[in-house]
Amino acid sequence: MPAQAGVLGALAGLLAAAADLAARGAWLRMKICKNPTCYSGFFDRTRNTSGLYCGTACGSQAAQRAYRNRIKDASCAQAS
To answer: Which of 40, 54, 75, 80 is deepest in the core (most CB within 10 A)?
Structure first.
């Protein structure tokens, strides 16, 4: 816990958490969500560190977006 409150305390807590992750070798598990509307940071808890999204909601949005783009591309290709 940081000794100070406010912005300095929050910054100290953040730096302490980063140092702890680096010391434990878990820094590579810190990732940024690949959903273009999110970009939140998250800790990848998957066994093989293959996580791309911060949660199932972002993963579902990205899958739905990819599906709609495939359907749109297929209909454009048929129309040509």
So the answer is: 54
The string of DSSP codes covering 33-49 is ---TTT--EEE--STTS
Between the alpha carbon of residue 61 and those of residues 15, 33, 35, 36, 68, the distances in Å are 32, 12, 8, 10, 11
3 state DSSP class of 80: coil
pLDDT by residue (tens digit) across 3-61?
Answer: 778 888 888 888 888 888 889 888 888 899 999 889 899 999 999 989 999 999 999 99
User: Is residue 41 within 8 Å of residue 53, measured between CB atoms?
Assistant: no
Residue type (1 letter), 24: R
| DSSP designation for 28 | G
